[in-house]
Specification:
Number of strands: 3
Pfam families: TnpV
Organism: Zhenpiania hominis
Oligomer: single chain
Protein name: TnpV protein
Strand content: 5-15%
InterPro entries: TnpV
Shape: rod-shaped
Order of helices and strands: EEEHHHHH
Length: 126
């Protein structure tokens, strides 16, 4: 038996694996490979666990990396914007940082935690 055969009706090559011919399939290459940081990785994990069909569709179409990079960028921008707005609204300023650094750190940690939860709810786990 031949190691490889070609089926003209569907345009696929098949490779002999034991007693069966298995299609030789590859994923399409993405045009550019953008870096994906924390937010993109978390959304990827969410898709793998809870939205399997969306994940597989993006993966097989070659659009997963661009999609995750876009989500990552949106989440990062939203996080910075929310932290800045909340800090301004609550009076957490550079003056407070100079006068009472421990209070400033505590309040900024609280603000970041709240902003993180909003980003999770609005972008990552949606």
């Amino acid at each position: 038996m031949d190691k490889y055969i070609y089926d003209a009706s569907n345009g696929l090559w098949y490779e002999l694996q034991g007693d069966y011919y298995i299609p030789c399939l590859t994923l399409p290459a993405e045009k550019e490979n953008k870096p994906i940081s924390l937010w993109g990785q978390r959304h990827k994990h969410y898709l793998q666990e809870h939205k399997r069909t969306v994940y597989i569709s993006l993966l097989t179409s070659g659009k997963l990396n661009n999609y995750l990079a876009d989500i990552d960028e949106q989440a990062t921008e939203m996080m910075f914007r929310l932290v800045e707005q909340m800090a301004d609204k609550e009076g957490v300023t550079e003056q407070l940082k100079v006068e009472n650094p421990m209070l400033w750190v505590g309040r900024m940690n609280e603000i970041q935690a709240r902003a993180r939860e909003i980003v999770y709810a609005d972008i990552i786990y949606k």
